[in-house]
Design goal:
4 helices; 72 residues; mainly alpha
Amino acid sequence: MQVLPFVCIIPYGHSYCVVLCENDVNIKVIQEVMGHANVSTSLNVYAEVSAAKKHTELSRIEEKFNQLSQVI
C-alpha cells in the first residue's frame, strides 16, 4: 500500500473563501459554507479585499455620488 504525502488543504479553503468574497457572495452564506460558528471569523480572517476589488467598489461609490450631485 502506497502512503500519500501530507497535503495541507487550509490554503485552498482560504482561497475559496476569498473568491466567494470577491464575487459578492452574502457573508452569511460564506459563514455557513466554511462552517464558522461566528460571522466575525469569516469577516476577520477571509474577507480580504484585492486592489482590483477595492478600485471597483470605490469607483462604484464615486459614480453614485456623482449621480446624486447631478440631482441636487
